[in-house]
Amino acid sequence: MLFAAMCGGGVSICYRLAIQDGLPVPMAAFGRGLMTLAFLLPWFVRMGPSALATRRPLLHAARGVAGLGAFMFQLLGIGLLPLADAVALISARPLWVLPLAALLLHERVRRDRVLATAIGFLGVIIVAQPEGHLSFGTVAALAGGLGAGVVLITFKLLSTTEPAPRVIAWYAIISILVWGPVSAFVWQTPSLFALAMLVGGTLFALASDLAASAAARRCEVGLLAPIEYSQIPFSALAGWLLFSEQPGWSLALGTAVMLGATVYLVRRGG
Q1: pLDDT tens digits, 185-233
Q2: In 10 A of CB 1, how many CB atoms?
Q3: How far apart are CA 101 and CA 105, in angstroms?
Q4: Do 252 and 111 meet the contact criterion of CB atoms below 8 Å apart?
Q5: Mind listing the pLDDT tens digit for each residue in 22-36?
Q6: Which of 11, 18, 31, 228 is deepest in the core (most CB within 10 A)?
Q7: Could you give the C-alpha distances from 33 to 170, 198, 262, in angstroms and in order?
């Protein structure tokens, strides 16, 4: 899960650079789906006609809808907010995962996990600094975290019968079907740099999905989700080096609170 989180930071960096270079947001989502299928082509060849065979189409559809929403809101968040702030708010998904895991997976909600999530959300509030109102970027980043929480739940449910490449392939197909027509209306020929960032972001996303799926098969999602906080310092460093963003005291304090909650959770629940 830690590797998945680091790859998630790479996704944010690559796609932000692509969008800043002029790539429309729907084209980023469409390109990710198209390239994901291309990267999975060797698996399709090896598996043959059974590669996409599934008895759980509705759950794949739910994962697709959640993934589409999560990815779009995350792109908006990282485009409108400082990179580390957006990643910090997206990483609030433990707030959503714990009640969802209890409701849908019947996982036992232990007091230490509830406490860690509450403390982590306090760190999120420190980073967001709402001051009586929330910007659209802040709302989008939080919505991206909610969608990511639902994705992790569906990964857990699908992991009992479906191999990870099949789950990822169905999501890629849904992305192409949804964002293909939209991209046709906003089409702009991407620059070589934007195309390179799109390829890099897709590779990071593929690696993150595979790692998260493997983690979901081996551990309860209530314990996995807070590990997402670990990518915040990495994103802060990337924002400073690549975008000249100066991390403020609120990011440092909020990150310290969230990481402290994660360390406590792992030590008590590992």
Answers
A1: 999 898 999 999 999 998 998 898 888 778 877 877 666 766 777 777 7
A2: 22
A3: 5
A4: no
A5: 999 899 989 989 998
A6: 228
A7: 9, 11, 32
